[in-house]
């Protein structure tokens, strides 16, 4: 049986009005066109669905069964249509963004909260990734926007600096540096430095004298949880940007500023070069760059 939604609606209109003229008017068809539509429905159904009388019609027993089926089909269709509209509305207001985990926890929430005062329907799809993966997510169009702590040259993205944060020295309270009131970079020359993987923005935004100095002993890691354990065991010192410090609040771990205030990390919002943003993502990008 090959019937359209239009035909099911016409059938149900006749069930409701029990009169060809009124039913045809309710679905905005001429009576001849409507009568032909009902005829094709009965032909497809293979049964007489209505008993015709001079000024009215009555459902046959087969017609009553078909009415229940038609109501179910129309209800399912309307429900599916409603779900589709909900999906379109959600997509219309969805902002996909790849961010560093520390940004996702400490910086992004305040931006989202303030932006929703302007655009309450905004919905965020957040991917927390390392810096290189945030960049590739935008370049490969997995997300429209990104927030990163380092930008290589010729990265294929447009960027705007939205935040800057200082680096701090982090170490065990039993480390010799704990006795110093002021710590300079030259003071770490005889310490073991716990160094992050080269794909992280922490590594990429630090001075080469810190991340690749032949006079310093290094322990290479990838995860912050590993760093936490090494600091507790007093296995070395490390440099961390301010946004990550909340993860290292412990009685045995000390955080001290470095005398050289130029040691900092810039945070950028990025978008793919030459790629048009959706309306809602463009609004959020403009909000970030104008804040």
Oligomer: single chain
Helix-strand pattern: HHHEEHEHHEHEEEHHEHEEEH
Q: How much of the polypeptide forms β-strand, as a percent range?
A: 15-25%
Full CATH superfamily name of the largest domain: Periplasmic binding protein-like II
Count of helix runs: 11
CATH topology of the largest domain: D-Maltodextrin-Binding Protein, domain 2
Span between termini: 60 Å
Given helix and strand content, the structural type is alpha/beta
Overall pLDDT score: 90
Q: Low-confidence spans: pLDDT under 50, at least 5 residues?
A: none
Fraction in helix: 40-55%
Largest sheet: 7 strands, mixed
Compute the CA-based radius of gyration. 33 Å
Number of domains: 3
Give me the count of strands.
Answer: 11
Q: Per the principal axes of the C-alpha atoms, what is the gross shape?
A: rod-shaped
CATH class of the largest domain: Alpha Beta
CATH architecture of the largest domain: 3-Layer(aba) Sandwich
Describe the structure.
By secondary structure, the chain is α/β, with parallel strands linked by helices. It folds into three domains: 5-71, Arc Repressor Mutant, subunit A; 88-162 and 266-290, D-Maltodextrin-Binding Protein, domain 2; 164-265, Periplasmic binding protein-like II (D-Maltodextrin-Binding Protein, domain 2, 3-Layer(aba) Sandwich). It has eleven helices and eleven strands. It has helices at 5-17, 20-26, 31-45, 61-92, 101-106, 108-118, 131-139, 201-205, 208-211, 224-232, 279-290, and strands spanning 50-52, 57-59, 94-99, 123-128, 145-148, 157-172, 192-196, 217-221, 238-241, 253-257, 264-272. The strands form three sheets. Strands 3, 4, 5, 6, 9, 10 and 11 form a seven-stranded mixed sheet that branches. Strand 1 and strand 2 (57-59) form a beta hairpin. Helix 1 packs across helix 3 (31-45), helix 1 (5-17) packs across helix 4 (61-92) and helix 2 (20-26) crosses helix 3 (31-45). The protein is rod-shaped and about 105 Å long. InterPro entries: HTH-type_LysR_regulators (IPR050950), LysR_HTH_N (IPR000847), LysR_subst-bd (IPR005119), WH-like_DNA-bd_sf (IPR036388), WH_DNA-bd_sf (IPR036390).
């Amino acid at each position: 049986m090959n019937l359209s939604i239009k035909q099911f609606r016409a059938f149900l209109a006749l069930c409701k009005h029990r009169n060809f003229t009124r039913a045809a008017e309710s679905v905005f068809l001429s009576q001849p066109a409507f009568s032909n539509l009902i005829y094709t429905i009965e032909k497809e159904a293979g049964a007489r669905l209505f008993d015709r009388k001079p000024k009215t019609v009555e459902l046959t027993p087969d017609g009553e069964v078909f009415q229940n089926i038609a109501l179910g089909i129309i209800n399912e269709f309307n429900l599916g249509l409603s779900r589709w509209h909900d999906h379109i509305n959600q997509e219309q207001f969805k902002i996909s963004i790849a961010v560093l985990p520390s940004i996702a926890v400490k910086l992004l929430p305040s931006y989202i909260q303030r932006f929703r005062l302007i655009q309450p329907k905004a919905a965020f799809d957040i991917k927390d990734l390392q810096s290189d993966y945030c960049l590739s997510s935008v370049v490969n169009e997995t997300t429209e926007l990104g927030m990163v702590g380092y930008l290589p040259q010729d990265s294929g993205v447009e960027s705007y600096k939205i935040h800057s944060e200082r680096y701090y020295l982090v170490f065990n309270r039993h480390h010799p540096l704990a006795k110093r009131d002021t710590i300079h970079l030259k003071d770490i020359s005889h310490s073991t430095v716990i160094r992050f993987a080269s794909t992280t923005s922490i590594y990429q935004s630090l001075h080469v004298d810190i991340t690749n100095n032949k006079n310093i002993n290094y322990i290479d890691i990838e995860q912050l949880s590993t760093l936490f354990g090494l600091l507790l065991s007093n296995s070395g010192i490390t440099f961390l940007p301010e946004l990550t410090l909340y993860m290292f609040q412990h009685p045995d771990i000390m955080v001290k500023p470095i005398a050289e205030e130029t040691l900092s990390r810039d945070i950028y919002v990025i978008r793919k070069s030459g790629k048009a943003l959706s309306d809602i993502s463009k609004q959020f990008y403009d909000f970030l760059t104008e804040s």
